[in-house]
Structure formats: C-alpha cells, structure tokens
Amino acid sequence: MKKILRLGIVLSFCTISAQTDQRIYDIIEAVSAERIEKDITTLANFGTRHTLSDTVSQTRGIGAARRWIKSEFEKTSTACNECLEVFYQKDLVKKGTNQRITKDVEIVNVLAIQRGTKYPNRFIIMSGDIDSRVSDPTNFMDDSPGANDNASGMAGAIEAARVLSKYKFENSIIYMGLSGEEQGLFGGAGVAAYAKKQGWEIIGVLNNDMIGNITGVDGITSSTDFRIFSEPVPPTETEKERNARRFYGGEVDGISRQLARYVHKTTKTYMPEMNPMLIYRLDRFGRGGHHRPFNDAGFAGIRIMEAHENYTQQHQDIRVEDGVAYGDVLEHVDFDYAAKLTAVNAITMASLAWAPPAPKTVEIGGIVEPSAKFKWSKVNGAIGYKIYWRDTTSPTWDHSRFVGDINEFTLKGIVIDNYFFGVSAVGKDGFESQVVFPNGIFR
C-alpha cells in the first residue's frame, strides 16, 4: 500500500509541476519584442550580409555583422558572470565548390555555449542564419537587408541567450549564428562536422529561419500560426532498421519527428494561444534549411518558421514592380510575432535542458497478446518514466502513463497492433526527455 501511495504522489507531482513551473512562464514574459526589433534593425542596417560580402568594413557586410553578433553574445556573457563560451567556428570553402561560390570564402559561424551543470557535453541548440541575399545568389554587392530572412531568426537566438543565461541548466545550450546558408548550407555542415569531431551529444537543433512575417501571399494574416518542419526518419539509419519498419512501424517516428512533437507539446502546454503546425516534411517543397546538415550527420534537427510566407519579400532585389514592393525590408517584420516564436524556442530549450537524458534503448513486446510490454534502459537523473501511446494515424502522443522508477512495464488490455508507443524519462521537476520510439523487440 505504501508503494502504491508513493507512486500516486510522484505521479501527481510530475503531472502538476511539469505544466505549472513558474520559471517557464517567467521565460516567456522575459522575451522582449523591443530588443528583438533593435537587433533586427541593426542586422538589416549592415546593408548586406551576403556570405561573399565585405569582411573588413565596420559598418557594412557579413564581417561587421558577425563581429557585432559575437559582441552581443559577449555582453550577455559578461552580464551572467562569463557563463557563455563565445567563439568563431571557421571553414574555408573554395571557389567553384558550387555555382554560388564565385571566390574562395571563409565560412565563419558564431557560437555561444552555456554549459550544463550535470551534462556539459549534451547540447540543445538554437540557430539563426547570419547571411542574406537578393535575387541573384552571386550578387554580394547590392543591398540585401534580409530583415526577415534571416535577421529575425538570428535576433531570436541572441535574445534567447539573454533570457536563458539567467538560469542554470543540467544540460548545455548553444546559441548559434550560421553563415553560408544561401550558398549551400555550409555553416551548418561545418558545425555538424565540428560537433562530430568534438564528440558532442546533441539533443536536438532548433533551426529558426524566418520567424517575423505574419501576412502571406495566400492572403492570410496570423500572429499565432507557425510551422515545425521535420524529417520522418534519419538518413543515417541502417538497412536493418529500414527493413524492421515494414513489420513494426516507425515511418514517422524518427528522432527529428520526436523533437518536433516535443516543441508542439511544450507550446500547447505553456503558450496555448499559439498554433504550432507539424509539417511532415524535411523542409518546404524542394527547398532546404540549416537543420538539414545536422540531419545528414544523424542528429535530430527541425525548422521553426512562420506559417504564411510572402515570396515577394524573400530573395528579392529591392524594387517596386507593377505596384508591388519587393524586398526583405524592416517594414514587413512583425516584432511581437518574432518574440513569440523566440519564446517557443526558449521554453523548449529550457524544458530539455532541465530534463534527464532520454532512454538509450526501448524494447517492446506483446505480439499476439492482449497487452503491450516494455523494457527500457534507465538513465541518471530520472525519478521515473512515462509510457506514451497514440493511434497509428495520430500526429501527436495523445495518451500517457507515469510508471515510476522502474525499467519494465505492461500496459494491460492495450493491443499492440492498434497503437504506436514510446517512453520518456522524467526528472525531479517534472521535465521530460524526448519520447523514444521502440528500437528493439522482445518476446
């Protein structure tokens, strides 16, 4: 009886605390639309941030922009008693690598690492792009303010650092500005390779690319809708894993898809006025973003962006044509909306950074039985585990049960054939890891 009572207390505690932690609401409140507006304006006023643009000027070009970004991260670090490790990560890309690289160029990314107290080598990452472009992707001379694409995402990463640097987390957080996106996703590829070399364990990458526009060419204006793009399964999976999916499922349950669901759940819990849209696609049709190089390396990564795009304001020379004003300029950015999506990122990172690691292995059994059985590897820092399940046609985890500090459990009366399942680890404050889809079978 005492054991049952204790489990009930823990379950009640976890259910309540994970949804009412005041720190999360404080983080949302602390995100400043005014600071984001100031930062977007500063970035746009560098004239152009094209990857091949001026690196010497103090007022124009990508060199001036990245130095300013680094200085903002350093200011934040000074304010939090040097809690951020701020540095450049660089790679040389040679002329002719592709048609958009018309001269040798050093791709320079800006990273700010906030080390976790318990898991300093586990990282949740928020990225924005530094670079911008006009209609001709090789034109690095003309004005290309890139106010929304992607000064908005870059400003969001800077602001998230200001807000979250006031807290201590068990896992590490990286705030990142990536270069070379418009020329071939070179910045992300460079950091992904660097992460592999350093042996980083990446929880996930939140790539923010265009988080400032609320009025689309579809005629819809919305300050609450946003999209979360995620690939279904990692491209690095083995032939054995691919074959297993035919019999056990998992076509839409890769690590990036679980990260997307985590953002969706966190948003609906703490910011219910927002409408996160799970898009079952790596990126927009035939297009790419800076989460993709991390996916290519086997890391979880998603794209967070506005729901309603205006193509007259992307990759365009600044002009008026047939009464239509083209160009990615400041007047088209909604700074309050950019602040909301920055808050979405901040509370997701905080929740994951306060959570224990996810189980490495989750095994499922119960074939031709009236019950679903589970075994999983225990992790340090977890007070218990939660089993999730959903209809096979549902995009979200709709049912769950907290089962305490054990490593196997049977859901009696639930037929394994009719649902998909997963397991997460729960920490002392109720924060959870991502859900892990079963990666093993037992009889």
What does this structure look like?
The structure is a single chain. Helix 9 (255-270) packs across helix 11. The longest helix has 19 residues, at 2-20. This protein has eleven helices and 17 strands. Helices cover 31% and strands 24% of the residues. The strands form four sheets. It has an eight-stranded mixed sheet with strand order 1-2-4-3-5-8-6-7, sandwiched between helices. Strands 15-12-11-17 form a four-stranded mixed sheet, with no helix packed on it. The chain folds into two domains: 2-17 and 358-441, Immunoglobulins (Immunoglobulin-like, Sandwich), CATH 2.60.40; 31-353, Aminopeptidase (3-Layer(aba) Sandwich). It starts with a helix and ends with a strand. 49% of the residues are buried. The protein is an alpha/beta fold and 443 residues long.
What topology does this entry show?
Blueprint: H1 2-20, H2 22-30, H3 33-44, H4 62-79, E1 84-93, E2 105-114, E3 119-129, H5 151-164, E4 171-178, H6 181-184, H7 186-198, E5 201-208, E6 225-229, H8 239-248, H9 255-270, E7 275-279, H10 292-296, E8 301-306, E9 319-321, E10 324-326, H11 335-353, E11 362-365, E12 371-376, E13 384-391, E14 399-404, E15 408-412, E16 419-426, E17 440-441
Radius of gyration: 22 Å
Report the structural category: alpha/beta
Shape: globular
Instruction: Give the strand tally.
Output: 17
* Average residue pLDDT: 95
Low-confidence stretches: 1-17
Total tally of structural domains: 2
Pattern of helices and strands: HHHHEEEHEHHEEHHEHEEEHEEEEEEE
What would you give as the CATH superfamily of the largest domain? Answer: Zn peptidases
Question: How can the largest sheet be summarized?
Answer: 8 strands, mixed
How much helix, percentage-wise, in residues?
25-40%
- In the sheet with the most strands, the strands line up as 1-2-4-3-5-8-6-7
- Class of the largest domain, according to the CATH hierarchy? Alpha Beta
- What's the total helix number? 11
Residues in β-strands, percent: 15-25%
Q: Which oligomeric state applies?
A: single chain
Organism: Maribacter chungangensis
Subcellular location: Secreted
InterPro entries: FN3_dom (IPR003961), FN3_sf (IPR036116), Ig-like_fold (IPR013783), M28_fam (IPR045175), Peptidase_M28 (IPR007484)
Domain Peptidase M28: 109-313
